[in-house]
UniProtKB/TrEMBL annotation:
Keywords for this protein: Methyltransferase, Transferase
GO biological process, one term: methylation
Name of protein: DNA methylase
GO molecular function: methyltransferase activity
Length: 179
């Protein structure tokens, strides 16, 4: 028989807080891994000769809000939904992001070689501007999409329908009109 000081041991060794500790450890590990990934991404994005580099938040802000194309985020989302390659998406971004923007203290100019960023009011002819390649921009937008930080749920839901409406407008415009 069992003595009164003997207890059946479970594989968890009867530690009621063991699961919470493991969860906390897992969260800390994920957080550290995410931080390392974020640092690596920032280093990859920051090909710059500028003494003034940009916070990832500033770059993300430009990717989300810059560009000067109507319903741009829906169009970008549609490209990702078609599972195009990074290079193909980079080419699409070149057409959707054009001209320039001033977003807060950051100025952006969209050029053939990528997105030029500068602090202040002028960037187009700033030789010290930080340049983010279109491929790096495409990769970062993909990461923002996966983490739910690029487009609203409404924009995500409407992306495919908006793309179809653009295609049907193009098709109708190319049909010769009878006289």
């Amino acid at each position: 028989g069992w003595g009164r000081d003997e207890h059946l041991q479970s594989p968890g060794r009867g530690d009621p807080d063991g699961g919470a500790y493991q969860q906390l450890t897992l969260n800390l590990f994920l957080s550290e891994a995410e931080q390392i990934q974020s640092i690596d991404e920032a280093e990859n994005v920051a090909h710059t000769s500028s003494a003034f580099s940009f916070a990832q938040n500033d770059i993300d802000h430009v990717l989300r809000l810059g560009g000067n194309t109507d319903r741009q985020r829906e169009r970008v989302v549609a490209a990702f939904e078609k599972q195009k390659t990074t290079a193909e998406i980079a080419e699409i971004l070149k057409t959707l992001y054009h001209g320039g923007n001033g977003l807060g203290s950051v100025s952006a100019w969209y050029a053939e070689d990528g997105i030029h960023l500068s602090h202040g009011k002028s960037v187009r002819y700033d030789r010290s501007a930080q340049v983010i390649s279109w491929e790096s921009a495409a990769e970062r937008i993909g990461e923002l999409l996966e983490s739910g930080q690029f487009a609203s749920n409404v924009e995500l839901a409407e992306a495919a329908g908006y793309e179809r409406s653009l295609l049907s407008e193009k098709a109708l415009a190319s049909v010769p009109r009878s006289q």
